[in-house]
């Protein structure tokens, strides 16, 4: 990854001209004030990974690091109003649109769709003064962040906020915009109506079998069957009578759900785990084997890692504000910062992937969290690099890229590739343990 690559991502995500245009469009400045809009927005995003990045006071310190007129803290806090929140929301929408436009890294069982999208949410507790706007499930205030993560580029492609009291399922709508994509979701989004919507709009889906669903088996392609049965027999009856054995082998069956009047045909996949059998429903073709379907569902863990990045590095769960507009402004800044880290890692990993599918990787990939930690350390250098020109700018961006590449390397890429990496064709590689240190100790003795 070169300095030009890093510069391109930052300038695409935080373009000065676009920030000024959005601020004018949203009415951020209605009168002349000593406010550098580009510097303010960049300070919010770049400082999100610093120890106090969730606080407006830390944003002020980062803002004053630039060549801007000094401003009192009280006046600075008043800038976090509704127009600035609308501006950050528009900038965030532009950022996720840029993520959607990225070249995806899909191979092996991941192919066959435009991209796989993982949906999930996380709850952020906020000040009790905001209970009216953001009621939680208890006697407290909380806001929920609903995220759609791209498997192909590792970055969020959609997100929005809601009161934490609202259920996740109502915030996912499968429509024509999903055609050609794949959906990975947990049981919070499981419903027969959503599966019908996936079928109607051409969406591939892998989801866990819900306990209260009663799929009826039409045909068993794989699995130990002890005797014949009538098509349409309930799965639980076949399992209870040991007609379909749970003997450690995979199960692949054609089933239908949703009642006999309007049946929805699906594949039922059963895979044995240390905790027993785990069952999935999918509409993927038979060429995707049962264990590959199970591994596809395990890729859902990537959204948990993305949320961990939001919270552990970019302080998503530490945002502190008394007003809804300033709260959302800082949340947008945190999520944009996470998107930048994910896209930088994706840029490097895409450039260094093996030229042929299945070939071993020879260069370490970048880990988004490790890269984000280095971005937090280099935040002031990055902020200054925006204003440099010519060879000086090139040298600064090259230095930043070298630091990010060195510090962001995944130390476990050889011995512990993730499920996603293995689906892409990466294989565990033997690690050679050097004995030189022990040899030198013996020589000294």
Counting helices, strands and paired strands, the structural category is alpha+beta
**Percent strand:** 15-25%
**Succession of helices and strands:** HHHHHHEEEEHEEEHEEEHHHHHHHH
Oligomer: single chain
Amino- and carboxy-terminal Cα gap: 45 Å
Number of strands: 10
The whole-angstrom Rg is 25 Å
Tell me, briefly, the overall form.
globular
Helix content: 40-55%
Q: How many helices does DSSP assign?
A: 16
**Biggest β-sheet description:** 10 strands, mixed
How would you describe this protein?
This protein has 445 residues and is of the alpha+beta class. Among the domains are: 3-102 and 324-423, no CATH class; 208-290, no CATH class. 40% of the residues lie in helices and 16% in strands. The protein is built from 16 helices and ten strands. It has a ten-stranded mixed beta sheet with strand order 3-2-1-4-5-10-9-8-6-7. The chain is globular and about 80 Å long. The chain starts with a helix and ends with a helix. The mean pLDDT is 87.
What is the secondary structure topology, with strand pairs?
Elements: H1 3-13, H2 16-26, H3 37-46, H4 56-64, H5 73-78, H6 82-100, E1 116-126, E2 141-150, E3 156-163, E4 182-185, H7 192-200, E5 204-208, E6 216-222, E7 233-234, H8 235-240, E8 251-257, E9 264-273, E10 276-282, H9 290-298, H10 301-312, H11 324-351, H12 368-377, H13 379-385, H14 390-407, H15 419-423, H16 436-444
Parallel strand pairs: 1-4, 4-5
Antiparallel strand pairs: 1-2, 2-3, 5-10, 6-7, 6-8, 8-9, 9-10
Helix pairs in contact: 1-11, 1-14, 2-6, 3-4, 3-11, 3-13, 6-11, 11-12, 12-14
């Amino acid at each position: 990854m070169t300095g030009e690559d890093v510069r391109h991502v930052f300038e695409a995500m935080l373009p000065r001209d676009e920030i000024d245009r959005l601020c004018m469009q949203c009415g951020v400045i209605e009168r002349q004030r000593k406010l550098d809009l580009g510097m303010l927005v960049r300070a919010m995003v770049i400082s999100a990974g610093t120890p106090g990045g969730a606080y407006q006071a830390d944003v002020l310190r980062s803002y004053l690091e630039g060549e801007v007129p000094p401003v009192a803290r009280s006046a600075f806090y008043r800038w976090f109003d509704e127009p600035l929140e609308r501006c950050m929301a528009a900038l965030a929408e532009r950022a996720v649109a840029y993520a959607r436009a990225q070249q995806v890294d899909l191979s092996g069982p991941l192919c066959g769709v435009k991209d796989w999208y993982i949906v999930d949410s996380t709850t952020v507790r906020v000040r009790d003064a905001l209970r009216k706007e953001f009621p939680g499930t208890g006697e407290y205030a909380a806001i929920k962040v609903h995220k759609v993560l791209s498997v192909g580029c590792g970055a969020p492609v959609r997100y929005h906020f809601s009161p934490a009291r609202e259920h996740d399922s109502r915030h996912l709508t499968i429509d024509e915009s999903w055609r050609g994509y794949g959906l990975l979701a947990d049981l919070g989004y499981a419903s027969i109506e959503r599966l019908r919507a996936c079928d109607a709009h051409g969406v591939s889906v892998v989801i866990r079998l819900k306990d209260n669903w009663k799929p009826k088996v039409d045909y068993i392609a794989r699995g130990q069957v002890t005797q014949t049965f009538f098509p349409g027999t309930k799965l639980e009856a076949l399992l209870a009578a040991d007609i379909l054995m749970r003997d450690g082998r995979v199960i692949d069956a054609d089933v239908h759900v949703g009642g006999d009047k309007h049946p929805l045909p699906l594949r039922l996949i059963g895979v044995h785990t240390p905790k027993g059998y785990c069952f999935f429903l999918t509409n993927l073709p038979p060429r995707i084997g049962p264990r590959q379907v199970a591994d596809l569902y395990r890729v859902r863990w990537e959204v948990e890692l993305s949320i961990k990045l939001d919270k552990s590095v970019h302080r998503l769960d530490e945002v502190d504000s008394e007003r809804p507009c300033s709260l959302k402004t800082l949340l947008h800044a945190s999520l944009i910062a996470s998107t930048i880290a994910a896209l930088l890692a994706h840029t490097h990993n895409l450039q260094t992937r093996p030229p042929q599918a299945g070939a071993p990787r020879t260069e370490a990939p970048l880990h988004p969290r490790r890269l984000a930690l280095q971005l937090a350390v280099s935040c002031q250098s990055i902020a200054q690099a925006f204003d440099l020109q010519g060879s000086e700018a090139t040298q600064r961006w090259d230095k930043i890229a070298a630091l990010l590449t060195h510090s962001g390397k995944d130390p476990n890429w050889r011995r512990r590739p993730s499920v996603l990496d293995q689906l892409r064709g990466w294989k565990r590689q033997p690690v050679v343990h050097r004995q030189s240190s022990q040899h030198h100790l013996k020589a000294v003795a």
